Amino acid sequence: MPIITYRQALNDTLGEELARDPNVLLMGEEIGVFQGSYRITEGLLQEFGPKRVVDTPIAEEGFVGVAIGAAMLGLRPVVEIMTINFVLVAIDQVVNHASKIHYMFGGQVRVPLVIRTPSGGTGQLGATHSQSFENWFAYCPGLKVVAPATPYDAKGLMRAAIRDNDPVIFIESLALYDTKGEVPEDDDFVVPIGLAEVKRKGSDVTVVSYSRMTAVALQVAQRMESEGISVEVVDLRSLRPLDRPTIMASVKKTNRAVVIAEDWYSYGVTAEIAASIQEEAFDYLDAPVQRVAGIEVPLPYAKDLSAASKPSANSLIYAIRQVLKGSRGR
Amino acid sequence: MTRVEEPVRTDLAAENADELRHYYYQMLLLRRFEERTSEMYVKAKIGGYCHLNLGEEATIVGLMAALKPEDYIFTNYREHGYILARGVAPGPVMAELFGRETGVSGGRGGSMHLFDAKANFMGGYAIVGGQVPLAVGAAYALRYQGRPGVVVAQMGDGTTNIGAFYESLNLAKLWKCPVLFFIVNNGFGMGTSVAMGSSETELWRKGASFRIHGEQVDGTDVLAVRDAVRRLRTRAEAEGEPALLDLVSFRFRGHSVIDADRYRDPEQVRKGRETNDPVRNFAALLHDHGIADDEWLKSTAIRVDREVQEAIDFANASPDPKGEDLFTYMYATPVPNTPGPEEAARAVQINRGEL
Ligand SMILES: Cc1ncc(C[n+]2csc(CCOP(=O)(O)OP(=O)(O)O)c2C)c(N)n1
Fold first, then answer.
1. Residues A216 and A162 in one domain
2. Percent helix, strand, coil in chain B (nearest 5)?
3. Which of A309, B117, B179, B323 has the fewest Cβ atoms within 10 angstroms?
4. pLDDT band at B6 (very low <50, low <70, confident <90, very high)
């Protein structure tokens, strides 16, 4: 299998799907002439022209709604929102419209739409440009939410998302765009929506994560191996629907769990996973589930405060040691 | 209702020479501050996203020359020049870009989120369009409380395509809010030209269906900007009549310091900078009219260089915010049982691998 970047995997897949299905089109700010704010759509305007690769004004509520309406008539728009922070301007269209239309109208019409957007942030992006809102969408029945961690999954899930007949929120990460990995060349390769994957086998503790935090978890697992600690990493890949059986199978085996995500601690993804483990695998647990998540502040710009507010390899290692000691609480 | 004012050539002889020289000084300060900011970004002293006002100096200085101390200003994230021209010292502004405790937002905001309550500088906002309704709200409050003054809602050309802008226009007119919609038309929003993004490319007309008066102004002419703002400001304050200004200028560089500007023809950018350089053009004007001689221009350049260097030195010497202060500004009304300095210090330690 060729080794390519996460960015390349997305770029390739978008190009292949544009070529495969004339109803697929891309829409978003700066995706064409500018070549994509993070170069995910680079070269696609040149290859497919302005009918298929549509540069939009800064009008998220408008063009997301337009994409939903177009999807109702059979187009398959793939909308780029520059970063997830800006999706808030369009959230009414997504939550009050896209998520409801199929169910509320008795299954008469579908909304085959993909909204792809990078979430979270490293560096000093500041309070308004570094947030993680995938849990807001994962909260909403009727949406599907996926968050690949590797180029392999980025490709497989993007294919699945574009071919899916429901609105899919496709979560990316700036910090993953340059990471590399193997990606199959097979035309029919997809990663099904709704399936988690054990990305690394281990026996002492399960770490549940997704997107960039899976990359962090895999590094930590590697580091801890030298100390004789065997970490199993469950990569969620889909947040809605959530693959609880894969999480439980792992926790029942290792008897300890740490959940890590970049969003804020209270009411976040880690809370959902920890609650599910408590419900479904309580008798198997040797220690309370530990959670690692964002500190609950608007992300400060200053370097050290900013770093301290986001989950990191160090905070994950700390939590793993706590769960191995059987300690309670944060 | 809506019209373009004929450009009025200001009679320099009728102007106060000291004031003119002060405008030039301010414009040069903005220019040097931004050039050095770009340099500091490359040296990794500044992080995150960082947008410069290069080419917009006359727009900014002209605006501030017309405003009064009681007026309020809301801007987008491209706002270093606005806070400087409003009179805030360069040191704390640079310190904010460096993320230091002495910065204008205590190091919490960064380049895109500058604020100075004493100067009525109500903040830089980085979600496109976000500042526009806030500015209308501030104008609403002025009117409600019977206070003098007006509010400026600064934004870029690209921002006139977002819904919040249109809702704001309607509310401002409907509720008689003394607000000036101040559109810095530098021709581009990132890589999107005005024509690519707006069906109405004459931005000054965009208030028309809300019965808001609009004018196009040469944004590279500091006096034209000042005079237009003065006139519309007076009316806004007296009659609660909002107005829209379309200030045309030329963006000297890419969208942000990390944008290589590949989508613009380099030759056109070179030419654009040459003909639309507000700082150089104003220097020539003052020189031609005997208001500033070579010596004064030279000493002003030296003074500006020194002041910007002092700002950098101040920022460099300033402390970072303390880890234990992570939660310090969390709530204006404190709440029991929420994390404080101890939890903050712990978070920092865990993150550094010290626990
Ligand atoms: C709601 C929203 N969408 C997209 C962005 C990303 N973005 C930041 S600046 C910008 C361009 C704005 O252009 P303009 O209003 O002309 O202002 P300028 O940068 O030229 O000052 C875009 C699209 C954002 N910050 N917020």
1. no
2. 50, 10, 40
3. B117
4. low
